């Protein structure tokens, strides 16, 4: 089951020292599954008062004493709008499924003691080259001579500009990327939350004399769904799956109000005609 978000300590090169389990690093933007699709669509439409009102009004026409006209004048518009709604929701679900499948099937290089291996990044150090960041990470090292990189963040915060990110100072000074797994170090990070503009954490290296403690901020982060603009970047994974900043900031879109205008304009003239009684001109 799900647990309350907690701060965590992530050791470089020592996955066995993880103090808690990571959620699966998959993205799922679908609102329904195969079994909940039709009930879910109907519930999201009829939970609104006016939609439920017109459904009850259409059902009431099966009672002869309450009938105001032919049944098809009620059920044809209702069935048409329901069909449009179901088709629209199905198309959106298929589009989300295909997009999620493409993102979840991407392969990244994972840095190990023996070198780089291809595989999905659920934990550990991940190596990125002009790729979309697969998880929320701390920026450890870059191949760029200026010691920094730029991120495109349009799919995270909607802004089209580029954000500057800086690696952890003591890891950027290491001769090679493989040295990251030869030192005794760890990252302490705050609990997962929705704030994409702030981060609190520390990087600690214990095998140096004296030990190194470096504060981490938003400038040291690589959030999932951003894109590396240049160079080769190595980062350590902090948050995955439902704990990603981008996932925690995503809310299910509200179902659209489709029934009222169409059914109201269909039923009202009929009701008015049935209840209108012209004056008796003969007195």
UniProtKB/TrEMBL annotation:
GO CC aspect terms: endosome; plasma membrane; trans-Golgi network
Protein name: ATPase phospholipid transporting 9A (putative)
Domain P-type ATPase N-terminal: 15-74
Entry GO MF terms: ATPase-coupled intramembrane lipid transporter activity
InterPro entries, sorted: ATPase_P-typ_TM_dom_sf, P-type_ATPase_N
Transmembrane found in the keyword field: yes
Short name of any one Pfam family annotated for the protein: PhoLip_ATPase_N
Keyword entries, A-Z: Membrane, Transmembrane, Transmembrane helix
GO terms for biological process, alphabetical: endocytosis; phospholipid translocation; retrograde vesicle-mediated transport, Golgi to endoplasmic reticulum
Transmembrane domains' residue ranges: 70-91
């Amino acid at each position: 089951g799900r647990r309350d978000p907690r701060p965590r300590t992530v050791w470089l090169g020592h996955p066995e020292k993880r103090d808690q389990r990571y959620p699966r690093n998959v993205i799922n933007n679908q609102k329904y599954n195969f079994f909940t699709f039709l009930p879910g669509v109907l519930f999201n439409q009829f939970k609104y008062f006016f939609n439920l009102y017109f459904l009850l009004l259409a059902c009431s026409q099966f009672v002869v004493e309450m009938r105001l006209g032919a049944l098809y004048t009620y059920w044809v518009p209702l069935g048409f709008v329901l069909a449009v709604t179901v088709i629209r929701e199905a198309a959106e679900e298929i589009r989300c499924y295909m997009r999620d499948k493409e993102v979840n099937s991407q392969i990244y290089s994972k840095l190990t003691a023996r070198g780089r291996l291809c595989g999905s990044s659920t934990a550990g150090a991940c190596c990125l080259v002009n790729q979309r960041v697969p998880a929320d990470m701390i920026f450890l090292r870059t191949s760029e001579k200026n010691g920094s990189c730029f991120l495109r963040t349009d799919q995270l915060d909607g802004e089209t500009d580029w954000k500057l990110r800086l690696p952890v100072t003591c890891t950027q000074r290491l001769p090679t990327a493989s040295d990251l797994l030869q030192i005794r170090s760890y990252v302490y990070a705050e609990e997962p939350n929705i704030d994409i503009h702030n981060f609190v954490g520390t990087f600690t290296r214990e095998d140096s004399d004296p030990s190194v403690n470096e504060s981490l901020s938003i400038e040291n982060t690589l959030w999932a769904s951003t894109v590396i603009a240049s160079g080769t970047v190595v980062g350590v994974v902090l948050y995955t799956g439902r704990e990603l900043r981008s996932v925690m900031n995503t809310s299910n879109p509200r179902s659209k109000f489709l029934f009222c205008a169409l059914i109201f304009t269909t039923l009202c003239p009929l009701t008015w005609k049935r209840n209108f009684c012209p004056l008796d001109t003969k007195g």
